[in-house]
Amino acid sequence: MILFKKIDLLIQALCTFFCVWIAVKGSDLGLLFYPLVGGWQVISTSVHAGFRSHYYVHKHRRLYHWFLFLGVLLLATLLLGSIIAGFIMLIAGPIMAAWYFYICCREFSLLTFKKAVHLKR
User: Fold this and answer.
1) Distance CA 15, CA 89 (A)
2) What pLDDT is stored for residue 56 in this prediction?
3) Cα-based distances in Å from 91 to 16, 34, 66, 69, 116
4) 111 near 2, Cβ under 8 Å?
5) Residue-range definition of the domain harbouring residue 62
6) Number of other CB atoms surrounding residue 3 within 10 Å
7) Is the dihedral of CA 45, 108, 35, 74 positive or negative?
8) d(CA 22, CA 30)
9) How large is the greatest C-alpha to C-alpha distance in the chain, in angstroms?
10) Model confidence over 38-88: pLDDT tens digits?
11) Which of 21, 34, 60, 99 has the fewest CB within 10 Å, making it most exposed?
12) Nearest to 92 by CA among 114, 108, 71, 61
């Protein structure tokens, strides 16, 4: 799971950097941030849900799952034509992405710490 965590964090960081870089350059392609980073994080969340017993779960992960569920519901209302849901998603998307990145970083550091403690015995 440590290898997956490393790859996961690297892909999240690269996707975020790429999308922010494009947005700073003034291109409308910066809006790729939402489906690119969000899509990867949903895939990552699904993999983490499937392999829950192979890593140390950060206390915020369950709360994140509830907010992700609410985000999917908001996305459904956005597809039905709700402008308010669209504005909420524009603000909530980067916050959720940063929060998930934080959760993954904390879980990775906990995994590496537990591995190091195990080796010291």
Assistant:
1) 18
2) 67
3) 15, 11, 17, 16, 38
4) yes
5) 2-120
6) 7
7) positive
8) 5
9) 59
10) 888 888 888 887 877 666 677 788 888 888 888 888 777 777 777 777 777
11) 21
12) 71
